[in-house]
Design a protein that fits this description.
Blueprint (H helix, E strand, L loop, with lengths): L7 E6 L21 E2 L2 E2 H11 L4 E6 L4 H11 L4 E6 L6 H6 L10 E6 L2 E3 L16 E7 L7 E5 L5 E6 L8 E9 L3 H6 L11 H10 L3 E5 L4 E3 L3 H11 L1
Parallel strand pairs: 1-4, 1-6, 4-5, 8-12
Antiparallel strand pairs: 2-3, 6-11, 7-13, 8-11, 9-10
């Protein structure tokens, strides 16, 4: 799988503390340093992305664990290009993403992945990078409980018509998973966001800017997807990765 062109950079959101995992296996650190099959989650994530062909990373950390995350990742992957940026306040996923701006060049395509999301198959394998100049792409999978997720309404040409966060009456069963593609106008768009009702700059609101410009596409993923935010999901992930 080599249709990667120059100018593909991957931003990993790794700043969340993962409060639902505090104390799990004596975890007193941040979620991404929790070991999954004896390897820190962040290194499992870089492994996964590197297998898909990604070689340039920007990891968004938090102030308390920045040096530890740097140490753990740079030691494991001396051959990769990894930059680091600190999200000083936990003000949402889009806010974390904005901290990568200094490392993104004009014309770059940005993959944005949540550090605790894992996939059986490469979601990007059907993505035509050479045709992607501007816009965004979200990735979805069909679930039975869409009201617990961000839900996308998609037309027959894979254009995204709307994305709603945890809707009471979902328009589809297409749950948005934690990997996204954006053009490099994304950082200007983040600057226009307003905080949501919970005081955060949301990734759904960011994607909806592209939806409103009719430049948001969708691809279905194949195989399992795990958002490893709870002890149960971590154990499930370890079984899947074996």
């Amino acid at each position: 799988y080599n249709n990667f062109v120059m100018g593909i950079k991957c931003v990993i959101a790794a700043g969340g503390l993962g409060t639902r995992l505090q104390g799990f296996r004596d975890n007193d650190k941040t979620k991404v340093l929790l070991e999954v099959n004896k390897i820190p989650m962040i290194n499992q994530q870089i492994n996964q992305l590197n297998q898909w062909g990604v070689e340039e990373f920007i990891i968004i950390t938090n102030p308390n664990f920045n040096s530890l995350i740097r140490e753990v990742t740079s030691k494991a992957f001396p051959e990769l290009i990894i930059n680091y940026s600190i999200q000083d306040n936990p003000r949402g996923i889009s806010h974390a993403f904005s901290k990568a701006e200094q490392y993104i060049d004009t014309g770059d395509t940005v993959i944005f992945v949540l550090g605790d999301n894992f996939f059986e198959n490469n979601p990007l394998e059907n993505f035509h990078f050479d045709n992607f100049e501007d816009g965004a792409c979200i990735f979805t999978t069909e679930v039975n409980n869409p009201e617990e997720f961000g839900v996308a309404d998609i037309d027959s040409d894979r254009n995204v018509l709307s994305i709603e966060e945890k809707p009471t009456n979902p328009k589809s069963k297409a749950a948005v998973v934690g990997i996204y593609m954006f053009d490099n106008s994304v950082f200007n768009k983040i600057e226009t966001l307003k905080p949501s009702s919970r005081g955060e700059y949301e990734v759904t609101d960011l994607c909806n800017i592209y939806v409103n410009e009719s430049t948001c596409l969708n691809l279905d993923i194949n195989g399992w997807w795990i958002d490893a935010g709870t002890p149960e999901r971590i154990i499930e992930l370890e079984e899947k990765l074996n």
